[in-house]
Amino acid sequence: MGWDALSLVDDAADERPLIERRAVLRGDFYEMQARTVIERVPQAAGIAQRWAVSPYRGCAHACRGCGARAGHRRLGLDAGRDFDTRIVVRPNVVERLRVELARWEGEELAVGVSGDCYQAAEETYRLMPGVVGALAGSGVPFTVYTKSALVLRDAGLLARAGARVAVSIAFVDERIRRVVEPGAPTAQARLELVSALVEAGVDCRVLMAPVLPLLSDAADQLGATVRRIAAAGARVVEPVVLRLPVGTRAWYLEWLGQAHPRLVERYEELYDRAGLPAAGYEGRITGQIAALCRVYGMECGAPVAVRGEPEAAQLALV
Known about the structure:
Structural class: alpha/beta
Mean pLDDT: 91
Distance between the termini: 30 Å
Oligomer: single chain
Number of strands: 12
Radius of gyration: 19 Å
Number of helices: 13
Order of helices and strands: HEEEEEHHEHEHHEHEHHEHEHHHE
Largest sheet: 8 strands, mixed
Helix content: 25-40%
Low-confidence stretches: 1-9, 310-318
Strand order of the largest sheet: 3-4-7-8-9-10-11-12
């Protein structure tokens, strides 16, 4: 990704981790000026968008299965505890985004893939109103991914921008949430968030992700989750089975070996080297969720890719 690419001149003789060379530590956050903010979404992420912008890297929600963990390794941090506690802030994200959107061809963007864009850092930095404003002004369609009720602060702005908001609710078992999403809001809080967003006129869907093999994928667990999502007023569910890309895999399997050692071998059989679950298993789980969605009158699946018409004219080459 362009924003953390190594400099061939300034940093050649400096052996400190990249984060120590490029960032300014302010309180609990590393401020790091971004060179590029629109970045490619890894295919393993499982979401519909191919490109994303993220004001923050790392996430205080500390979800063990977060697929964005590898990004911290490129900064000289670890993909485990550092990802959860050492949050990188891109204070110039709005400025850079406006520049890059002037050249963008209208393909839909995801917001908040490298770290929840409405996590606690947003209370301090308030970057999202500017991000939403820049995207709305460009005419580029976008989807905001979050677990946080702080998104309600910008509900009116998001509704006027025609943004989609995807609230992540993978399961409703609080015992599981406490150990695999220790810093995230409860499932009940997120269900209430869905209801509030729908009431505010925001195009809200539920990202039922990640479904955890052998932990949250039993028929009764899936049924309870889909039923409560429907009751919250959601109209669309997008299921994604847990991915274990590089960075995430080691951290997740380390925890699994401690908490559920008998499952480690089964996970190793289920996942390929790229961190993707076996196609047959994934198809079975998403098929079950789709059937449940039909029972409760909801749509199921990723959104159709959309492309907007940029508001600003493209620059001529001559």
